[in-house]
Amino acid sequence: MLIRPKEGILDPQGKAVERALPALGFEGIGHVHVGRMVELEAEDPERLVELCEKLLANTLIEDYEIQTL
Amino acid sequence: MIWGVLQFPGSCDERDALHACEVHGDGARLIWHESRDLDGVDGVVVPGGFSYGDYLRAGAIARFSPAMEAVAEAAAGGAPVIGICNGFQVLCEAGLLPGALLRNAELRFRCHQVELVEEISGERLSIPAKHGEGRYYAPEEMLDRMERDGQVAYRYAEGHNSNGSARDIAGVTNERGNVLGLMPHPEHAVDPLTGSTDGLRVFERMSKVAA
Hints:
By secondary structure, chain A is an alpha+beta fold.
């Protein structure tokens, strides 16, 4: 599961990373957002949406994406 | 008025909350997070700290504890509930209060005395604040509705909103007014020895809800 701050919500961690980049010689990088990744093995992938909605993401402030490997 | 103060693994302000409840009310007792029974208390304080290490998101795991189920039932029955700092985050995560608390806009952990204005009375309170994730957020239309319905309880006075909270909001209530959450710490301001007793007014406000 990839969980990231919703578009339009100030993400100070992303901003801090973004501001540090030019000093390290990385130019032309913008819209940095810092989120989290949760890795898990699920017997019943059907319930992963519910898991994200109830616990892993706070949908008021975060978007989530489920990737199956 | 007997208060119960929840204690999670990682809580750190439960002793001061207990003391504040003892100073203000008729007694207080600690309630361990695994207890499904609130032991007959009239109101509950969800204290500050770092429940469950703030893992995942601040307050996200504490909301699933047995004690929080009991708190949700008590709140639905009209009992006063005060969430302070991490307790505010827990109540938001539990859906007992609207909105969410995000990382401070400037990424700094802030620890200082702040001035608050109580929305109903216009009175100023001086109490300490100490948090890294205290930036109150709710979508604009939700904020409009909350302001209209009188759910904004406290705002930071001008120049005191150091975390970037939406509309200077420091504390909010549910629609009924019996659940209050605020980032600053009224339980640290109940004794003249520490500079201010303004925190007691927060407890007084909430015990009136029970009356």
